[in-house]
Amino acid sequence: MLREQLSNATGKQVRKAIREREWTRTTHGLARSYVQANLAIVPEQYAFDFLRFCQRNPKPCPLLEVSDPGNPEMPITAPGSDIRTDLPGYRVYRNGALIEEVPRIEHLWRKDHVSFILGCSLSFDEILTDEGIAQQHLKEENGRIAVYKTNIECQPAGVFKGPMVVGMRPIARKDVARAIEITSHYPLAHGGPVHVGDGRDIGINDATKVDWGRYTPPSEDEIEVYWACGVTPQAIAMASGIPEMITHSAGHMFVTDIKLSAIRT
Amino acid sequence: MLREQLSNATGKQVRKAIREREWTRTTHGLARSYVQANLAIVPEQYAFDFLRFCQRNPKPCPLLEVSDPGNPEMPITAPGSDIRTDLPGYRVYRNGALIEEVPRIEHLWRKDHVSFILGCSLSFDEILTDEGIAQQHLKEENGRIAVYKTNIECQPAGVFKGPMVVGMRPIARKDVARAIEITSHYPLAHGGPVHVGDGRDIGINDATKVDWGRYTPPSEDEIEVYWACGVTPQAIAMASGIPEMITHSAGHMFVTDIKLSAIRT
Fold it and tell me: What sections of the sequence does the record tag as coiled-coil (chains A, B) (predicted)?
C-alpha cells in the first residue's frame, strides 16, 4: 500500500519517507517518473581522481552531481536532501573490503567526505516497460539482473583503473533495435548498450557465472544485451584499495528531484 | 593557401602545423569537421573545485576532457597532443590579472598543472553555416561576436562563483527556431541558447556596450539570440583571483581529434 503510494510520489516525498524510516527497503518502482541514482562517497583526497574517472567513463559512470566536501546536501538534483539519511541502505568499504551494511551513516560522516551520484539503469527499466519492452527480471520484486566484469578497460584516472562492469538483460529479438534506440536517448542512465549478443566478445566466457546479481537465461526469442553498469565505480574503487568508500546498498538508491523526461536527449 | 589546406585537414594535422609554427594565427575555419575547444589550465590545488564548477554549469563549461596533473597530453580527445605547444596563442593570468600573451608555454609548465578543455561555439558556427543559417560576424576573418556578462548566476563550486557570460548572435527571425533546434543537439558545444530576444531580461541593459568582442546590431529581420559562452570560466577564475590560470588566446583554440558528428546527441 505504501509502495503503491510511493510509486506515484515525487523524489522529495520518497526521500522523506526513507529519512523518517517509513520506508526501509529497495527503491525499485518508487517515484516512477524521477531519476534514481547510485551513490559513492570518497575522501576528498581521492575526489579529484574519482571525478576525472567519471568524466572519462560516462557510460558506466554517468555523473549527475558531485557535492562540496563535507556538505551532505545535493543542492542541484535534490535540494534539501541529506545524503546521510535519505537512502534506505548503505555499504561501507575499507581498504577494498566490504565492512558493513548500515541503514544510516550520520555517525560515519566527516567534513572531508565528497558524495558522487551517478545515473542508474532503474530509470530506463521504467522507460522500457512503458514502451512495452518486456524484461523477465522485472516480474519479481527486487528483480536482479546478471552483472559481469568484462575485458573492456575503463579509461584510468589517478588511482582508479580496471574493467567496465556490465548488466545483461535478455531482450526479445524483435525489440532489440527499439530498446537500443530508446536507451541511447538517456546517456545519464548509462545510455545505449555497450554490446549485443555473445558475451565472449567482451570477456564473459560463461554467462551462467555472474560476478553480481542473478543470471536469467534468454528464452528462445531473446538475445543478450549488455549495458554499462553502475557497479563499475564500486568495483574499481575496491580494486584500488582506497582506505574508504561508502555506497548505496544494492537496489537502495538515492531518489532525485530530476524528472526522467528532463534527462532525455 | 595554407588556410585552405588546413580547413580540410584533421585536428591532428592542424595541431602539428601549429606546433611547428607553420600556423600562428586564429583557428577559425581550420579542421572544419573537428571539434575545437577552449583551454583552461589551473594548479592542481584548484582543479577539483574547477571540475565541480564545470560539472554544475554544463552550458557555459561543456567539459570535453581533463588531464592528469602534470601530463600535457589529452589522451582521449587528442592522443599525442602537447597542450604546451599545440595552440597558436596563450594568455597567462596571475591573481586575477592578465599578465602576458605568449605563443607557447613550455617554460611555464609545472607538474601540478591540470588542463581542462571545454567545447566552444566555433563548432556550431560551422554547423549553422552548413545548414544555411547566415551569421553576419562570420563574413570577416577573426569574426567576433558580442559577449556580455549576464545576471544569471552560475552554480558555485569552491572558490569559483559568478555570473554566466553569453555570446549574442543576430539570427534571422525565420531561422531562429531551426538554429535553436540544431544547436540543442550539441550540448558539448554550449547546446541551445540561454535566452532569445531582449537582453534586458538577462541583465544586458545596453547591448552596444560589450564586455568582450564586438557588437553587431541585428538587422530589421533579425533577433538577438544568446548562447552561453566559454569566456565564463575565465571570467570567473579572474574574479576568484586564483594565483594562476593559463588559457587560450581569443580565437586561438585547441583542435581535437573528435569529429563534430560524434558529439551530436
Answer: none
The partner residue sitting opposite B55, judged by closest CB among A44, A56, A63, is A63
Task: Give A61-121 as a DSSP string.
Answer: --EEEEPPTT---BTTTBTT--TTTSSS-EEEEETTEEEEEES--GGG--TTEEEEEEE-T
What integer is the mean pLDDT of B81-106? 96
Chain A residue nearest residue B77, CA to CA: A56
Fold of B122-232: PSTPO5379-like fold (3.30.2040)
- Comparing C-alpha atoms, which of A172, A167, A165 is closest to residue A128? A172
- pLDDT in the model for residue A248: 94
Give A209-212 contacts, CB < 8 A, sequence gap 24+.
A210/A146, A210/A147, A210/A148, A211/A147, A211/A148, A211/A149, A211/A165, A212/A147, A212/A165, A212/A250
Superfamily the domain B2-120+240-263 falls into: PSTPO5379-like (3.40.1640.10)
Q: Which three-class secondary structure state does DSSP give residue B2?
A: helix
Q: What is the pLDDT of residue A124?
A: 75
Residues B260 and B35 sit within 8 Å (Cβ to Cβ): yes
Phi, psi for residue B20 in degrees, rounded to 5: -90, 10
Based on DSSP, count helices (H) and strands (E) in chain A, helices before strands: 6, 12
- pLDDT at position B244 over 70: yes
Residue A91 CA: distances (Å) to CA of A69, A164, A245, A250: 20, 20, 8, 9
User: Nearest Cβ partner of B51 from A48, A65, A187?
Assistant: A48
| pLDDT tens per residue across span A83-117 | 999 999 999 999 989 999 999 999 999 999 999 99
Q: How far is B143 from chain A (nearest CA, A)?
A: 31
- What residue spans define the domains of chain B? 2-120+240-263, 122-232
Cell of residue B112, nine digits: 601540478
- Give percent of chain A with pLDDT exceeding 90: 78
- State the pLDDT at residue A143: 65
Q: How far apart are CA A233 and CA B10, in angstroms?
A: 34
For chain B positions 178-207, those within 8 Å of chain A (CB to CB) are: 187
First to last CA, chain B: 34
- Tell me the average pLDDT across A207-229: 93
Interface test with A, best of B50, B52, B112, B186 (most A CBs within 10 A): B52
For B179, phi then psi, to 5°, come to -60, -40
